[in-house]
Amino acid sequence: MNNKYDIIITGAGHAGSEAAAAAANMGSQTLLITTDMTTIAKMSCNPAIGGIAKGQIVREIDALGGYTGIVTDETAIQFRMLNLSKGPAMWSPRAQSDRMKFSQVWRQKLEKIKNLFFWQDTVTELIIENKKIKGVKTKLGVSFYADAVILTNGTFLNGLMHVGKTQISGGRDAEAPSYGISEQIKKYNIPVLRMKTGTPARLDGRTIDFDKLTEQKGDDYTAMFSYLPDIKTKLKQRSCYIVYTNKKTHETLKTGFKFSPLFNGTIEGTGPRYCPSIEDKLVTFSEKDSHMLFLEPEGEDTVEYYLNGFSSSLPLDVQIEALKKIEGFENLKIFRPGYAIEYDYFDPTYLNHTLESKIIKNLYFAGQINGTTGYEEAAAQGLIAGINAHLKTRKKEEFVLNRDEAYIGVLIDDLVTKGVDEPYRMFTSRAEYRILLRQDNADFRLTEKSFKAGLASEDRYNLVLYKKKTVEEIKSLLKKTNISPDKINTFLTEKKLSPVKQKERLEKILLRPQVKIKDLIPLSEEFYEYVKTIKKIKDEILNSAEIQIKYQSYIDREKQNAEKLKRLERLIIPDNFDFSKLQSLSTEATQKLNKIRPKSIGQASRIPGVSPADISALLVYFGR
To answer: Taking the model in full, what pTM does it have?
Structure first.
């Protein structure tokens, strides 16, 4: 039995799966340890991937050579592009997946990676010597050794589930928690804190009157998450449904408040503000008589449904009675109740941007143990940790994404610079450069960087080069091609737009908000003939060219702003600099800077408690 590997990953959730795939595909002999081989990348909460800002993250994962987008596309039972009524910086892809097949396909993908090996067991102890990771010990008494270890334990560390007064030790429904690691980490003066998250009851669709609900069908979309052209779902598409709570629902829920672990002090962890439980909603929005909920199918063929927006830790009888007060749920039966779960996480400000610990060398942290919530945020961290663990053990340059390069860069910079006091969820508003960080251009931004680092494949990289070249050719063609009034005015009149009086460049016509690039194909012979030559990802190329043309001035302005702020990122602070010797810094700034140890003036400027005056003092001291 082989007990020595290059990299070990503990936990096979979304973070662990991406970390294992990245490290192994880059060439590291990688061991993935999980308590249950049948629950790899399990969708333990809602059966969906993507959404506002989260969809952008998944497209970035795909552009880097990760698997979340591919698995989502292959197991999708509904796809929607959110925010299409807004500008392209806000467009966000989201898919419902078959929850069971999602885990199965992930396992199949991982088993095909030649450098990746598996062990079903629970890690109970880290082997650390002189503040450097050496390996892990498991519940079965086996010791494994590696040059780097990545912790992706999710909600399993000292996990405790709540349903009313009932408490069950567990990291997820019916799954045992993990003990030992938190207590060990705490000995190295890394803060171990508690957070809470929750999930709703799962409903039996055979007992729901769907005629009383509002159906929500998916989009007919040619491209979803993966930039690879041949990745498609073959599954039957399913509808979601919109339902509403009402006064009777709320009255029933309130009868259980005195037994709620959220309100009686039983739960100590901080919950997600942006995804509150139904009892939280009733207190925070007491003036509302109803709340909108989304009924989501759990799979292609199953009758099980997930009620998005109704997570709860109230007693079982209260949950059931309240649900039955919702129109269409009068005869409802459930498969299992909602519950809240408390778990340990570690202060992410004790990490570098590579997600390596600042305290214990070659030990990486990724996923919910860093204080985040969501599959997408976890997967992104796992990918970056996997890449960097491989590069570190090969003594190669670290792989870090900046805030103007990726939402993943924003996510990790926020974690290690600002820390968290509630479960962190990504939003478009967190990104200063969201016009640059669109879901349509993640491959333009990231694939070349990943290819050079050794993860993205040559075929993927060549596809991006082809796309870039073709987009530029389209932009050039539309800029120099004129169209006469007799060929365009009928179309403009039908669109209720002002006709042209002389020949006009196609580019200028396209700048009109009501005109789409596909509208111009049949109207211009030159453009029509060129489009026929596009051999692959035609729709994606046309959409990319249209966005660049319509929003070029905004894109250029945002690039200029990003470049100005990046100057601060280039001002490096020495690793062991003692901020205490700068008397001009405020006491709070000195304490925060000495704790977080920013790598640059730019990072220092984003630390809460460090004022512009403190930054000016740093600039003066470093001669800038």
So the answer is: 0.94
